[in-house]
Amino acid sequence: IHVARESQKGIIIGHKGSMLKRVATEARKDMEDFFRKKIFLELYVKVTKDWRDKPAVLKRFGYR
């Protein structure tokens, strides 16, 4: 998960990792339903400063 600022990282992770765990669990369940098999999902939160304003980074993430 890429965020634009360090302050956003704490919001995504949440208190003692509770929000990140919740996001990961929901994503894993959706993926398991879609692929119809067990999935191991490992998430990281990375700060990429102002990534939304950089066309090269957006393209790398799959946006046009």
Task: Describe the protein's architecture and organization.
The relative contact order is 0.21. The protein has helices at 6-13, 18-35, 55-60; strands at 2-3, 46-47. 50% of the residues lie in helices and 6% in strands. It is mainly alpha-helical and 64 residues long. The mean pLDDT is 93. The chain contains 3 helices and 2 strands, in the order E-H-H-E-H. Strands 1-2 form a two-stranded parallel ribbon.
- Give unreliable regions as ranges: none
Helical residue percent band: 40-55%
Distance between the termini: 19 Å
Total DSSP helices:
3
Order of helices and strands: EHHEH
Strand arrangement, major sheet: 1-2
- Oligomer status: single chain
Strand content: 5-15%
Itemize the secondary structure elements and their pairings:
Blueprint: E1 2-3, H1 6-13, H2 18-35, E2 46-47, H3 55-60
Features:
single chain, 64 residues, mainly alpha, 6% strand, flat
Give a summary of the structure in a few sentences:
This protein is mostly helical and 64 residues long. It is 50% helix and 6% strand.
